[in-house]
Amino acid sequence: MTTLTRALAAVALLAAMGTALPALEAAAAGTSTTGSTASQADQRNVERGRQAVDAGDWERAAMFLERATDSDPRNADAFNLLAYSYRHLGRIEDAFEAYGVALRLDPAHRGAHEYIGEAYLLVGDLAMAEEHLATLKAICGGPCEEADELAEAIAQYREGEGQ
Question: What's the pTM?
């Protein structure tokens, strides 16, 4: 079973359970019900993954972020960064799956909406990119960096279509 498949199964189980059983959810995720759900090791893996992303070392980023999402399947930021890494590795289907997990965990995750919109442009789906831009604008309620960057990517995509 792949990392993403396990994560999707965990997210589906947590969603099905709702909030009625937080202690059981926490036990299944290997976390406590108070404070952060991420262990120090999870946090280190996310930070190392973020550093690798900043350095453009996509393989290394994916490795650390896979570890983080395996052990903490409720970390939307880690899934977003994992998807971003997959996208840069050309693993677009894996990227869409990981962005989907990030957005199921946090439907208002601005970074995930921006990056999945950019991923949709890579596969030629302008309508879905625009849908995520509209969602971002609603989430932000005014100007925000993520919406501005996705709007710019859409404008560049449209310019390229006209050539």
Answer: 0.76
